[in-house]
Amino acid sequence: MKLKKGILIHNQLPEGYDAVSINSGTVFHTEQPAEMVTYRGYIYRPQYEEFAYVPKRDWRSLSPVEKNYLQAGQQRNDYKTVYLGDIPEKVKDIFRKLGLADSKSRDEVMGKLKQNEQQTQKLNEALTSFLLPISGNKPYNFHCLGINFPNIEMVGCDTTKLPAGHQPQDVRYMGMHNDGTTKMTIHTAHKFGNRISINLGKEARSFLFVNLSMIQALNMLKKKIDVKKTGINIGNIPRLFFKHFPGYPVIRVRQQPYQYYIAATDNCFHDGSTLGNSELDICFVYFGAFQC
Question: For 214, phi and psi rounded to 5 degrees?
Answer without folding.
Answer: -60, -40
